[in-house]
Amino acid sequence: MNNELVKSFIQKRDEYDVLCDVAQTLIINTLNEHDISVFDVKGRVKDVSSLAQKIERKKYENKIKDEEYRNYKELEDITDLCGIRIITYYSDEVDLVAQLIERELKIDKENSIDKRNTTLPGSFGYSSLHYVVEIDDARAQLEEYNIIKGMKFEIQIRTVMEHNWAEIEHDLNYKSKDLTEFKFKRRFARLASLIELADDEFVNLRKESEQVDLCSFNENNVCTQGLQCFTMHDPMYMEFINRLKQNLPHIDSEPIANAQGHRTRELQLEQNDYYTFQEIRDDLLKYEPFIAHQVYKHYQDKYPISDSQPILYMMYAKACDINPKFLKTKFGLSNQYIETLMDDFKLVQ
Fold first, then answer.
1. How far apart are the C-alpha atoms of 324 and 28, rounded to whole Å?
2. Contact of 269 with 315, CB cutoff 8 Å
3. Which range among 104-108, 139-143, 217-221, 261-265 has the greatest average pLDDT?
4. Global pTM?
5. Strand, helix or coil for residue 72
6. How do strand 40-45 and strand 82-88 relate by DSSP bridges?
7. Residue 216: Cβ within 10 Å count
8. Strand 153-159 and strand 82-88: pairing?
9. Checking DSSP bridges between strand 153-159 and strand 129-135, what pairing results, if any?
């Protein structure tokens, strides 16, 4: 049976390569469309030797437990043949990405696991959020996704710090069996505790850095720090946000301050020829109906919105108005999302 599973995988390897490419592109586009900036998105298809080892390991573990009925019977029983890893900058962004994944894809809850919640309070080690997913029914009807309909793949979400720890731990364990001994495992656990502390401190440092000095604001300098100040303190922008929230009675929270988003937004504004904050104010008012419509759609499932996201929708509107090709070349949006934006622009603007 094991040989048959491996042979089946070799025969279908090209299909899993396609799945990996399509899934990775889908994840990247979805993150971009929801204004979430991450460190990296990696995709991989399991190699044949790793698959053979996994099958044998599963067989051995089940034999010890007298649960041989749990052995893999079909290739589809193995849910991590294709894997996508999303690496975030900060630990609080893991849950933000997770909300998006749960909203946009069909989750296999039985085979998904949050390893952050499986560690005992006094122990430290591998920590990551694992989903087993497939594309949702609506996407499956589209030609670009129909080819991967019904195929499951794994998504791992972790921070940069967690990723580095896991890669080093895996590399050293692979090179030396001695590292499985208690004393080495304990040293890895101590390092994991430091990484968890570092992740928390990076979040705190980011939040402190978002407390902007009003004196640093320069009306004619659209920079990261200026954007933070503008989105938090500019009277016109605050009034603009309040008008948007009037149409969203089910939302009580304020927009989320996102320093990483501000850095991304600075580059996008520069690429789209915005050099002063007055230019931003003018176009926010010009395209307010479209922006309000996009924010309303974004909030339908109470999904968090960043404090600079209306500015992103403003730039989308300008692209729809002047040259829709910019939505692809400057923002990297998918054809499906561009078509939706163009329809919305014609409808409300």
1. 20
2. yes
3. 104-108
4. 0.70
5. coil
6. antiparallel
7. 12
8. parallel
9. antiparallel
